[in-house]
Amino acid sequence: MKITVLTLFPEMFVPLQESILKRAQAAGHLEVKLVNFRDYALSKHKNVDDVPYGGGAGMLLKPEPIYAAMRDLPLAQRKRKVILISPQGQVFRQEKAKEWSAEEELVFICGHYEGFDERIRNLADEEASLGDYVLTGGELAAMVMIDAVARLIPGVLGEEASAEEDSHSIGLLEYPQYTRPADFEGHKVPEVLLSGHHAQIKRWRRKESLRRTFLRRPDLVSNIFFEADDYPLLEELRLEHEE
Ligand SMILES: NC(=O)c1ccc(NCc2cccc(O)c2)nc1
């Protein structure tokens, strides 16, 4: 997959390039290209932003530099999905990461200041938000999205299985997990996990995922697809948690 990022702060992406994306890029699974659209600002002062028509506080990103940068991208040999990052976008979730991980090329447009000139939206196929909060720019949001997408690209992680089994990719919160020692300062690992009894372990994990999801994220419950085997677990949980 090729990922291009239009940004005023390409240096923000260096840590990503030097860490999680390094191996993926070396292995040829991923290519990340950074474009500083300030390089496409025509005016001698290299202006990329300007005051809003109609007044109001703050500055907006001008259309020309971003249009010029987009037009200068190599011709899209492949399908190219252009994503505008802003608080006005659809909230990014795991299913969106999954959907984008199947694309051949993604282009992220990161905005700064108080927003974009509306005509910049005509360049984008989608608009995505990391969540309902305002940042100084879209770069951190783009990095998070790139991380979530990259780890789903076959071969990037190595053990795809863990990406597949992620709780958020099945809509439930993860069950409690333990590793050695079996007894840490008197805090013991649940016996069932030491039993080697795989059916019981699977049951315990599903029940604890259900418990945790009900308790911490009741908003996710409506999306859970309940299996027949869940009903006895739900009854046990109801009894354990009845007021
Ligand atoms: N929640 C997010 O994904 C997010 C994205 C960007 C951003 N800041 C730059 C910006 C860009 C566009 C409009 C705008 O109002 C602010 N802040 C938060």
How would you describe this structure to a colleague?
The structure is a single chain. With 243 residues, the chain is of the alpha/beta class. The protein is built from 11 helices and 9 strands. It has helices at 14-18, 20-26, 63-71, 94-101, 139-150, 160-165, 167-170, 191-194, 198-216, 218-221, 230-241, and strands spanning 2-7, 31-36, 49-50, 60-61, 80-91, 105-110, 126-129, 183-184, 187-188. The strands form 3 sheets. It has a 5-stranded parallel beta sheet with strand order 2-1-6-5-7, sandwiched between helices. Strands 3-4 form a two-stranded antiparallel ribbon. Helix 4 (94-101) links the parallel strand 5 and strand 6 (105-110). Helix 4 packs across helix 5 (139-150) and helix 9 (198-216) packs across helix 11 (230-241). The protein is elongated. The model has no long low-confidence stretch (mean pLDDT 93). Residues 85-87, 111-112, 114-116, 129-131, 133-135, 137-138, 141 line the site of 6-[(3-hydroxybenzyl)amino]pyridine-3-carboxamide. 6-[(3-hydroxybenzyl)amino]pyridine-3-carboxamide (4G3) binds next to strand 5.
